Amino acid sequence: MKKLLAMILAFTLGLTLLGCGATTTMFTTTASETTENTTSTEAVEPLSVMTPAGAPALAQLYIQNSDRYNVDVVVGPDPLIAALLSGSHDFVFAPTNVGAKLYTTGIDYQFLAAVTFGNYYLVSNQEDDFTIASLEGKEIIVFGQNATSDIILQYILEENGVNATLTYVDSVTTANSTYIADDTKIILTAEPSLSVLENAVPGFQYIDLQEEYSAITGSSSYPQAGVFGKTTLTDDQIEQFLADLEASINLVNDDVPAAIVLATEFEYGFSSAVLTTAIPNCHLDYVSALDVKTDLEAYFNIILDMNGVLIGGALPVNDFYYSED
Q1: Which of 43, 122, 166, 174 shows the greatest Cβ crowding within 10 Å of its Cβ?
Q2: CB contact set of 271 (below 8 Å; sequence gap of 6+)
Q3: Residue 144 to residue 150: CA distance in whole angstroms
Q4: Which domains does the chain have, with CATH numbers?
Q5: Contacts from 291-300 at CB under 8 Å and sequence distance 24+?
Q6: Helix, strand or coil, per DSSP, at residue 32
Q7: In terms of DSSP H, where are the helices of the chain?
Q8: Are the CB atoms for 186 and 141 separated by under 8 Å?
Q9: HSE of 119 in the Cβ direction (CA atoms, 13 Å)?
Q10: Across the beta sheet with 186-190, what order do the strands follow?
């Protein structure tokens, strides 16, 4: 049991990783063209990137492997908020609602693109027919009170007319640990923790909240996390980063075995078995700020109806969204 809990904690926490260099690295966008073509240039100061551990870190995996960037992988929202407020990093991956709220305070960042589109799941070992309707009158162990996980779950329950008791815990690690200690519990978890749990105690059922959201709204999912860039960067710098980011996401999705090798080299702490299932379930995708605006505003309107303070009390203004001049 102790070994299992330690493994899940390690997967949730992640590590702080750095990379630097003075060459230009062009990586390709298809699984069949994973060779990097490196051309010598004059020394250029690498751009700084911060990402939380988990799905956003997987999205930028090949960014971290490029000499063009220094990447810090951090744990929890506090370092992300500090970075956005202080301007310490050129690019910061963060929950979209966090970025929207901080934008109202005057931070020097714009929203550049969405990269993860929901990775929340309900887990149960007790229900023969485990559906949203079956949750009526049940207790659900939930992490992230007033965060995206909580908002999406409450929205889905409300739209389905289901009344359930939500018991909040401090982290997805605690939610998983609760299930391991007592598999009669129903918990809310997220990838990659779902895959960690599945490899540790297989045999449970789960509900994909992204599918439930899509059934209600008609949107494929909600833009859960994205990347924000400093307004002092040039369009060339931003466009190069976004091209590299899109290539990274394509490579991770198209060649999972290669992504597993790279994640292992960076000591992300995930086993191959976990990553094999986690990467597809993380719903990684690249959608530019303007292209994702409609889906993002639909998601933000849900937040406004439930607790508008979480995005600053109103939909972001047009200048929130990056657009190349």
Answers
A1: 122
A2: 199
A3: 6
A4: 2-117+222-320 (3.40.190.10), 120-217 (3.40.190.10)
A5: 292/113, 292/114, 292/223, 292/226, 293/321, 295/114, 295/219, 295/220, 295/221, 295/222, 295/223, 296/96, 296/114, 296/223, 298/217, 298/219, 298/222, 299/96, 299/222, 299/223, 300/96, 300/97, 300/100
A6: coil
A7: 2-13, 55-59, 61-64, 78-86, 96-103, 148-159, 172-181, 193-200, 209-217, 235-254, 256-265, 272-281, 289-307
A8: yes
A9: 26
A10: 165-169, 139-143, 186-190, 120-124, 205-208
**Residues 6+ away with beta carbon under 8 Å from 157:** 132, 135, 163, 164
Please check whether residue 188 is in contact with residue 152, taking contact to mean a CB–CB distance below 8 angstroms.
no
Q: Is the distance from CB of 66 to CB of 25 less than 8 angstroms? A: yes
User: Can you give the pTM of this predicted structure?
Assistant: 0.83
Structure tokens that stand for 311 in this block: 């995005």
| 3-state class (DSSP) for residue 73 | strand
Q: What angle do CA 64, 68, 72 make, to 5 degrees?
A: 40
Residue type, 117: F
Q: Which two tokens stand for residue 251?
A: 């490579």
Residue 40's SS3 state is strand
Structure-token match 């009170």, residue found: 145
Which residues neighbour 150 within 8 Å (Cβ) at sequence distance 6 or greater?
A: 142, 144, 166, 168
* Residues 204-231, mean pLDDT to the nearest whole number: 94
Residue 129: band (very low, low, confident or very high) from pLDDT cuts 50, 70, 90: confident
